[in-house]
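Running low. Any example?
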Amino acid sequence: MSDNAKKRKRPPEDASAAKRSRFNIPAARSATAYPSGEVNVARFMRAHENEIKSLENSMRLAKKGLSGRAFQDVPRDLRRRTGSHNPQRVPKRLRQQARREAEEDNTPIKKGKSGSGIGKKGTKMWLRHESIKKKKKAKEKRQKAREKNKVTATPEIAAQITEHAQRSEAQVPKKMNQRPKDLTTLAARDGPRSRFRTRQIHKTWLPTHLFHTKRARITPPKEPLWRFAIPLSPANKVYRATHRSSSQRGAIAWDMSYMSTIGLEGVEASVSGLLRALNFAEEQGSSCWSNKGMGKKWQNGTRTWEGWIYEREGRPLALIGPATVIWSVQEPGSTKREAFVRIHPSGFLRLWNEVVRAAKVQKPAVAVEDLRFEVGSIEIMGPAATEVLSSILKPTSATNCPPESPESVWPKLASVTDVRSLPVNSLFAFPVSDPRLCYPPKSAAPAVTEESQSELLETLASWPIDNTQNAAEIFSRKDRLAACRSLPSQQSINRRTGAAPVGQYPETRTTDPRIPILVFNSIKSNSWTVLLPWKCVAPIWRCIMHYPLFTGGNPRFGGLKERKQVDFERSHPSFPFDHPGTDGGWEWEMMERSARKIEWTKRPKGKRIEWTSIDLGSGRKGELGDPWACDWERLLLKGSEENTQPSDASSKTKAPFRQLDSEQASKVVASWHPSVEQLSTPHVFTVKISMVSRGVPTACARVYRLPCSNVELRTKWLSLTRGPKPASSARRHEGGSTWKHTPRRVAARLLDPVTGDGGRIKPGSEEYPEVPGEEDLIGFVTTGNFNLAEGRPTAVANLVLQRVLRHDQRPQHDDDAAAALGTLDTMSEDTAAGEHVEGVRTAVKLGQGQLADLTKDILEDVVSNIIFSTALSCHRSEKLLRMQSAATQAESIALSNLEPSSQAKGSSTQSGPPTAETDAAKYENGRVYLKGNPLKTTPDITCPHCKLPRLMHPIMGKGMQNPDLSKEYCMLYPWVQRQGHDVYGNPFPTDTAKTKKERELLKKAEKDSVGTPGSQDTDIAADNPSQSGGFNKLNTGGKPASYIPWHTCPNCKRSLLITRFAQHLEKCLGISGRQSSRNAMAKLAGQNGNGTASGTPLGSRMGTPAPASQGDPVAKVKGKGQSPIKKGGDDEDGDDNETPEKKKKPKKSSYVKKADREKKEGGAPVKLKLKANNPAKDLERKASTYSESSDRPDKRDREETEDGAPKAKKIKLSLVKGEGGSAPPTTEPPSAQTEP
């Protein structure tokens, strides 16, 4: 410290001699910056907003950098176990970070020995230097030769060069457009670029090979598949992603250009005869050749047809493979038709030979052409597949086309998510523009309005394309080659895109290519297939892969394994993998045998299965046959081995079996009567296998039938299928109802660990039955895994028909046959296993006891689903009520704290927006923000209208609880469940209706009983809570048992009891009663001319006198005009009338007390009040209600005088004195001064 103090410069003694600062930085005084001595937080935060954000960002990045490593930023599907210590295994953007982390952790970094880098070290480093020197010398030599042969262009030489170029340009298209003279020869692919020519000597790259090179695993270079370099699977983990993309969300695409295409051209009859000779779609009958329905549309070129194709000769028919046949629309004035036949490459050569031989037989002959390297294809499936294709494939002439043309209908299908909603195997054919001109593509939002949906439904129902489809240009060789030649390079596309305005696509030109395409859907695979020229596949594929889906993400791509996985999840046998009865399937089996054995030998002994030590029971050791293969040779019958056993030379290409259609096999098994051909030649057919117990089946698994010779062993195997099936439990799991079965299974496992799995015996235990003998082996599993679509393990197997139908072991009864074979789910080519076509009835026979189990499972599923949906809806409604209550409480508190407008005007300070905060919500500036789970934070439910708490339980009946009477509750009470009461707590009526006087007496009694202890019909015990101890008594029922509802008449607007409403309505509307009969008689009298002089109908007893005929003005008002005969009749029957007479009210006395008279004689003003009814209105009312109230017990007729006229109405006249104490002068009687 002392040394440092000596080195420091001491300040000068003279303050004036101090060195002045070089910079003068202006600064505001604290007094001006903080005028009141306080910091304005809002202004301070705004001023330092950028600094605070950058500080927070740096803190967040520092925390993330310390806790996360480079390989953790890689997506999960790209992570590998070796990526944590190799910086080269992460993307380029993370390699620098990975190297820095490796250096900090002292992790050794191992560099690869391969590559083209110069800094490689090792014993062969000198070879790399030598090769570099040789390449430099060769480059210099070529450059010198180029300069030596350089020629100066003169006008004469330029003219010769131009003439030669024009001659060559005129000749090349003519040669290219010409068809080859010999159409029966196989086509050769176009020579690849010199850069990749040596890599395609024994195989052919797909158009998208460069795209798949770094993204997928491709077949080994020296082991191509069907002479193509085919991508097997993406490099990422895509098993679950493939399932989601193909069925739930998104889309997945495959480059299917390796599929072979054969072109046919000739007269329609000759082409049809060729297809008939090859037995196309023989298993489907003659439906495709009919002249109506689907067959007619297929022959017209507006549909595609998928079916099996067979060899031309031989019985039984030898199956080649599944094929798709597409006809072209016949052009007007042309007699020739064209067709495409698409088949898998494994069966192409065999089909080609058959087609060539059949084409020469036809008269006239059919031209056959190999289009394998001219027509490519892309297959795409998934909910967003239609959206992707409709956005990428834009027709070139969509604006000038009629609304029913394919170009106009195609963009409307963007919102279709299920291909099966379209017409079966429909197709579109039109030219499209180069999609690279609209790159990057933009996602098109599907139209979801009602108009667009209705328009789409009308289009799908009518499907006008069947009448407007034109001939597809892709059938023309000239159009295909023109599209490939006019396709611009990517460099020219980039130049045009760069020259276009920012954010816009380049303008179209007349020289832009017209790419002919043909798009068709497949109901079997639920996918779209696009046919287009071979060289146009790569541009369209690139745009499809980069298309942004409306639901998010991009379409995925798949390989051969993913295509096989999709078929497996749909329980559809995949060709050729699941068809060993064909040559293609047998060749695949031979390749898989060697591959499985090599993989098994590479594994260490501790990690591989020792097949020789497997215990099969009864002293048998080791697996039957070759454990790495589906040993079909062991299943050949002794009588057919000599005839069908192939030689050594053809054992790898010729199948020893014939593939049988699954539908035909199911019929044969059901009838147990195969044909002679099926018995003489071995046949195999595909079935679906569902696991009864645990375990996942894999390829080469053995399939046994139930033993027929050993009855005891057969009984043991049958006992395993009598317990609860996992299939039903899997379905219950999908419905969310396995929670009630879980405790039972756990308890069963704890009590009996051997049979804990639903009462079944565990495999491997001593009680588990042994494997049947070799005589019961009937087939092998070709594909097996866990099926994500069904949520359980399934498998696709092939069974030998002769093994299944052995006559020496034929069951005696049908039930035994069903038990021996189990449930065979047939797998045909047009339906999945266990799935049937709509409209086709299939017979399913259930064994003994299976119907009861099936019914029980269905009822359990239905009841559990109902309970689950009910509980879910109740939970959701309760949560919504709690959320609404939390918001209502916060709003009420905020509004209560708000100052009134009168006080706010007088105050000097400006009040801010109302705010409030509770434990459940926060109210701020008109918005409510909830906190946490409202089911926990909000115990009570508040009514949003009256802001009062609601009762949580009913106040009477079942589930009632006594509420807190010190609170005031909302009048919307919970529903009541009580016998003899409705949901509102009102008792049902127990007696007849009471008269008006009886109701008035009851109301008076109720008023007198208010406040009486023990009263149950009062709403509130007292108006003042203080009188009743601060408690309010709730209304427990509301109405007494004698209460009858009222209703208003829609005609006269009168309120009547519901018991009298029907009777009143008939009379009021004129449906029944005396008035209706009079009206009817009046109409009849008017028609016949037999009415009386007074206008009385014929049905009346005598003419009723008019009210004015009596001469009494009072009678005009009060007279009802009853007939004398009727009056007399009423008098005679008066004694029989059981209706009690109405008691007359006692008349009020006119006596006035003396004190009152003296009081009135004062100087108070005297007013004249006249009370009288309106006679006109009273007459109308009396006339309208006359017919309906004549027999009413509470409406008495008025007393009449002796002459029949009604008594005059009495008018009460009260007179008071005027100003002088005398009565006002009157010139007329009081009755004359009254106004109606």
In short: DSSP finds 41 helices and 30 strands in the chain. The mean pLDDT is 75.
